Amino acid sequence: MKRSVIKGTGRYLPSRCVTNDDLSKMMDTNDEWIQQRTGIKTRYWIPEGETVGTSDLALEASKKALDNAGWKPEDIDLIIFATLSPDIFFPGAGCFLQTKLGLTETPALDIRQQCTGFLYAMSTADAYIRSGMYNKVLVVGAEVHSTGLDKTTAGRDVAVLFGDGAGAVCLEGIETDKNVGIISTILKADGQYAEKLKLELPASKYPERINAELLKTGGQYPTMDGTRIFKLALRKLPEITHEVLGKAEMTLDDIDMVIPHQANLRINEAYLKTLGIPAEKMFNNIQKYGNTTAATIPIALDETIEQGLVDPKSSTVLLSALGAGLTWAAMIYRFGE
Ligand code: ACO
Fold first, then answer.
1. Range of 123's domain?
2. Of 28, 174, 190, 271, which one has the greatest count of Cβ atoms within 10 A?
3. If you take atom 10 of ligand 1, which residue's CA is the nearest one?
4. Residue 270: its pLDDT value, please?
C-alpha cells in the first residue's frame, strides 16, 4: 500500500526577537497581561524596515528540510505552500518559492487555510501521493505577520499574538505493508464563523479593493472575536481529536506526542485537561514564537524531533489545529518505514 512518509523537516525563524516589553513601548500592553492570557513571552519578526517576503522565510526552512531528506530541489514533484500572508496578493507564495529554489516547471500550489493551513496542505499532498500523480512533495507553512499588524493600542488584542516564521516537510510516497506515515486525517470548516476572525482588505467584493475611505475602517488589519474563537477551540479540538483517533482505530495511549497549533497556551492547557493526558505528552512552544499560523505545526514538528521528544524512527504523533474560517483539522502520523 502507498503511504506518505516524512523524509525531512526544517524550520526558520527570523532573527529579530520581540519581547512583551518591546511591545509595551508600541502600545498599551504589558508582559503580565500577555503571559497570563496567552503564555507568550517572545516572538520573532522579520528585520525592521527590510523587504522580506513569506517565500524568503520558506526558502530557508525548505533548504533545511531538503538537506535532512537528502533531496535536491529538482527531486520535488510538487510544492504545496500554506500561508495567509503571501508575499503579494497574487501569484501565490509557492511560485516565488519555486523560483528561489532554482526550479522552472515544478507545479506550485498555495493553500489559504490559516492556522489549519499546514494540515490541509499535508492532507492534499497525501491525496496526490496516494493517487500516484506526484510522489515527492515539499509541504511548507510560512507567515510574515509582523508587517500586517496594527501595532497601536487599538490593535493590541491581535498584535501581541502573532510571530513570523516558516516550517517545511519533505513528504514522499513509499510502498509498504506497515501502518506508517499519514494514518488518518480529518479536515473541517464552518463558514458561519468566517467574520469572527478575518483580514478584510484588500477586498475584491468592493467596487475598489482598497482606497483612502476603506483604509479609515482599519480593515487592512486582522480582527478577531477572541472570546468566541477561544470557546470554539475548547470544544472542537477535543472533539476532532477523538474523531481522528476513532478513524485510525487508535486511542490516546497509542499517541506519543500531541502537537497542537499554538494560538494560546490557555487553550492548549484546557485541551490537555479535557483529553486527560499527562503534560509531557503535549508539546508547546508558543512561549517563544507566538502564533505563527500555518508555520506553527511544521516548526513544532522539527523542534520535537531535534529535542528528542519525537523519535523520527518510531513515534506516533497527533497534530491538531483550529483557526480562521472557521477551519479545524487533526492528523495522526506514525514515523518509521
Ligand atoms: N494588553 C493588555 N490588555 C489587553 C490586550 C493587550 N494586548 N488585549 C486586550 N486587552 C484587554 C481588553 O481590552 C479587555 O479589557 P476590558 O476588560 O477593560 O474590556 C481585557 O484585556 C480582556 O480582553 P479579552 O479579549 O476578554 O481577553 P481574553 O482573556 O479573551 O484573551 C485572546 C484574548 C488572547 C485573544 C483570547 O481570546 C484568545 O486567545 N482567543 C483565541 C485565539 C485563537 O485561537 N485564534 C485562532 C487562531 S489565529 C488564526 O487562525 C489566524
1. 2-175
2. 271
3. 157
4. 98
